[in-house]
Amino acid sequence: MTNSNRWFVIINPTSGNGSGRRKWLKIKTELEYNAFDFDFVFTEYANHSKELIQSSIKQGFTKFICVGGDGTLHNIINGVQLQKQINSSAIQIGIIPIGTGNDWIKTHGIPLNIKESISIIKKENVKQQDLGKITFIDEQRDAIYFNNLAGVGFDGFVVSKVGAYKYLGAMAYLIGALVGLFSFKNFDTTITLNDKKLTTKSLMVLVGLCKYSGGGMRLTETPNAYDGLFDVSIAKDLTKLEIIGNLLNLFNGKIVEHTKVETSKVRDLSIVIDSKDKPFIQADGELIGTGNINVSIVPGAFSFYCN
For the segment 208-221, what is each residue's pLDDT rounded down to a tens digit? Predict the structure, then answer.
């Protein structure tokens, strides 16, 4: 049995501080108006979207719509990449964005407007961007994929603080950064990229595919989701005063010009933490733990609907 011509819609009711639930009737009406033939389901707990997409792929679905934010899309992509039923490139995903930061859509020009985002999906114009793949060096666990940006250090610490301020929308990330500033400690790390080893004290190490993260911050230099390369920024031992003095530069992209920030283009890298206290790791704004990691590129692995 196949459902290849039928759509499967996954709604995160808590995305955007509850916007998923509040806006679903409007979204459902608009999908029906545009003659979409679809099943739908609400997520009920963390990572539920990963399970839902895997079970629906087994039912023959290949076309999906994500109603949620960056975190919901992240989990759906991981569900696709970890399933063994069909080639992941055959799975196509449309996005109706209702999250807190909505960072990934900014790179691809997907609008926040519900009617306009559904219109894009309706056209079924498919693009394929690269994904990042994170594997933990010292642990036996599933790989974690990311479609936007992953980071180790201060940005992960900020993500751990953001939950309490999500009702403020994208401003939650700025507030999380200010709160985290006074308790975060820079860490010692050894980074291997392009066969070069760099041992340094770091504020954060950022591995980017797309332009924006953290509610609109621009933390990497020339990211390109289609070129088969990561854009890496290593923010070294910045002081708290230097961070405060560069808050605006986190959003306008000029942070990469700071003398304590080093940038590189790579296909893969490893990040080994030499400090006793291991900093948080985040992928697409989702905390994924702590530890030493390898990060590799998976070219053209994510198929999505875009203009």
Answer: 999 999 888 899 99
